[in-house]
Amino acid sequence: MLVLWIRDVATRAPAKRQELNRAQQDYAIIHFLTFFCGQNPIRSFFSRHLLLSNVSTSVVQIGTADLLQQHINGDVERNGWDWRRTCRMAAIGLVTAPTLHGFYKILDSRKFKGGKNSQVLKKLFWDTASIPFFSCLFITVGALYEGQSVRSALSEYRRKVWHIWKVDFSIWPPTQLINFYFVPAAYRIIYVNCVSLVYNCIMSYIKNNEDIHIGTI
């Protein structure tokens, strides 16, 4: 009886295995189409939690920018990768991203009067006016992570403010003007993220070098 049962199981196993494989293939195809046709649970999760999405993006972006800056500046070749510095820089996004999220949420909720050009220029004005605050937040938070006092952190910002403002007002007003007027809505996030990576790379250099070394910016 045992031999007959084993033989019966052995003859039915390939058919069952084939059915199982077919079912797995069907599931894989459905899952693939669902993932790439817009019902992606990860994408859906981050679209419902924009604050978490913005914070995650900012942390990864600033950390990546600092790593690139260490390579570009030759720090990695001379002393190896300073991963603690990269972690401190990345953690700046934990403070700046929620603040930016709140600011743009308020800005987008405002009903600016006038035509499209007038509305864009008014948004650009408020965006530009906020630049010094956010660059100050970037530098001072980074200094506090290094163990500096609030007074010392603000002092560092004052020492480097001219270089920071040159970068800020050279990059962001024209970037946002192009963004609002010429970049299609579908590509604005990609465009701003690319510019932000370059900006954070420069800010990493300013933050981690003394004034005498950043005079060429």
From TrEMBL:
Presence of keyword Transmembrane: yes
GO biological process, one term: mitochondrial ribosome assembly
Protein name: Mpv17-like protein
Transmembrane keyword on record: yes
Pfam families found in the cross-reference section: Mpv17_PMP22 (PF04117)
Membrane topology qualifier: Multi-pass membrane protein
Domain of life: Eukaryota
Gene Ontology cellular component terms for the protein in this record: membrane; mitochondrion
Subcellular location as annotated: Membrane
Keyword terms of this UniProt record: Membrane, Transmembrane, Transmembrane helix
Family: Belongs to the peroxisomal membrane protein PXMP2/4 family.
Residue spans crossing the bilayer: none
